């Protein structure tokens, strides 16, 4: 079951958006919990809107961590969406779906030499535990039939192609000394289009 909040205005440094929350009850590894996803959208929506489906990364999005490209991708996406009009779907699936607590444990394993995939596997998770079914619900809710998807992730392209007509647009953030290996793993092990 999905609960949907009312819509509200959200002025940001990137532009003016409408914000709405989608609350879903999930079961993961035998535990029930709530995920409260967010949608930011421009007031005017074109026929073929620019859409970014962004998974939560508290360390990158809020604390500007240099270990990943998440915060940079989020800011780049918001700038482009404000200008070109469309949607940011912000999924509350921290750490590729393993949660913040486990993500910090994965960081500790990365500090000892494992890459992001190896760390998730060492903790007993798959390399990516995210579920995109809520995205189908959101596409349907807003009656979207086609989108320009802002992503480098082939798994997202594959998942969303079964939901909606899409074309992909790249989102490339500059590499730094702290995330170069992370980006290389995304490219070589996960097939990201970098």
From TrEMBL:
Pathway: Cofactor biosynthesis; riboflavin biosynthesis; 5-amino-6-(D-ribitylamino)uracil from GTP: step 1/4
Cofactor(s) in the UniProt record: Zn(2+)
The reaction(s) this protein catalyses: GTP + 4 H2O = 2,5-diamino-6-hydroxy-4-(5-phosphoribosylamino)-pyrimidine + formate + 2 phosphate + 3 H(+)
Domain of life: Bacteria
EC number: 3.5.4.25
Cofactor, how bound (note): Binds 1 zinc ion per subunit.
Record-linked Gene3D superfamilies: GTP cyclohydrolase II (3.40.50.10990)
Ligand binding (Zn(2+)): 57, 68, 70
Pfam families: GTP_cyclohydro2
UniProt enzyme class: hydrolase
GO BP term, pick one: riboflavin biosynthetic process
InterPro entries in the cross-refs: GTP_cyclohydro_II, RibA, RibA-like_sf
Keywords recorded for this protein, A-Z: GTP-binding, Hydrolase, Metal-binding, Nucleotide-binding, Riboflavin biosynthesis, Zinc
Keyword field contains GTP-binding: yes
GO function term, MF aspect, one: GTP binding
CDD domains named among the record's database cross-references: GTP_cyclohydro2
GO CC aspect terms: cytosol
Catalytic machinery residues: 128, 130
Segments forming domain GTP cyclohydrolase II: 6-161
Chain residues that bind GTP: 52-56, 94-96, 116, 151, 156
The family this protein is said to belong to: Belongs to the GTP cyclohydrolase II family.
Annotated HAMAP family: RibA
Function: Catalyzes the conversion of GTP to 2,5-diamino-6-ribosylamino-4(3H)-pyrimidinone 5'-phosphate (DARP), formate and pyrophosphate.
Protein known as: GTP cyclohydrolase-2
Organism whose genome encodes this protein: Helicobacter ganmani
């Amino acid at each position: 079951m999905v609960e949907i909040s009312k819509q509200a205005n959200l002025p940001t440094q990137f532009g003016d958006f409408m914000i709405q929350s989608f609350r879903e009850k999930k079961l993961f590894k035998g535990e029930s919990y709530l995920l409260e996803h967010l949608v930011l959208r421009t007031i005017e929506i074109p026929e073929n809107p620019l859409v970014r489906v962004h998974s939560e990364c508290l360390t990158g999005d809020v604390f500007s961590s240099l270990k990943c490209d998440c915060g940079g991708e989020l800011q780049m996406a918001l700038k482009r969406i404000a200008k070109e009009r469309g949607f940011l779907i912000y999924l509350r699936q921290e750490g590729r779906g393993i949660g913040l607590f486990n993500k910090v444990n994965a960081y500790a394993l990365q500090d000892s030499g494992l890459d992001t995939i190896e760390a998730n596997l060492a903790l007993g998770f798959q390399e990516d535990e995210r579920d995109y079914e809520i995205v189908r619900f959101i596409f349907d809710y807003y009656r979207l039939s086609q989108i320009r998807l802002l992503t480098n992730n082939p798994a997202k392209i594959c998942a969303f192609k079964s939901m909606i007509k899409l074309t992909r647009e790249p989102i490339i953030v500059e590499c730094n000394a702290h995330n170069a290996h992370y980006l290389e793993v995304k490219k070589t092990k996960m097939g990201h289009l970098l």
